[in-house]
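Exam revision sheet. Question 4 asks you to relate a sequence to its structure. Input first:
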Amino acid sequence: MFRNFDFLSILYNIPAVLICITVHEFSHGYVAYHFGDPTAKQAGRLSLNPLRHIDIMGFICLILFRFGWAKPVPVSYGYLRNPKKEMALIAAAGPISNVILSFVFILLSAVILTFAPASAAVNMICNFLFITAIISTGLAVFNLIPIPPLDGSKIITPLLSGKAQAFLINNGQVIQIILIVLLLFGYLSTPIGILRNFVLKGVIYIVIFVLRLFGIDASYLFGIA
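Answer key, structure tokens:
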């Protein structure tokens, strides 16, 4: 697990993780505010300050495993006009924002590598952008797992029966502990990694398509013919 984990990895991963969780949590709060819920704003969570969103354990897991979480953004159902639908959209906003962030950073790295003169600084910048994209995609995929308190559970809750909802609510803490144990021992790394790479590959193909619209062929940068 720590074979390739060195000081350079830490230098890349820490700011990358901070960017990813900040975008993720800000998006939750922004969409909630859009639906009329000021709770996140009043709690200081409608912010791009990473310190307002960090959960220590989730932050460590993101650095070590590239899958983790931040402090949940508070949402008050009473402010929502259509709580079930709008809560699902608020939950989905985090993972969607992370995929968008991956797209933007991969696009930036492709443009930089295409037009900037080759140098060590350029390579470092592009490595950072791509590592951030990988972590951001992993964060999106991990949070779509339909287990409390992850976003996926809030997205599917309106589709579940009353008994299933009650089970998740009553056993949420136990399920969360099991999830953390599975993550720490690496049992989830392979399946989540496969899904992350699948999504990441899709994002790369979209980046290549967008650049081709502007007459730029960046497929060779990703080893794609």
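Marking note for examiners. The two ends are 32 Å apart (CA to CA).
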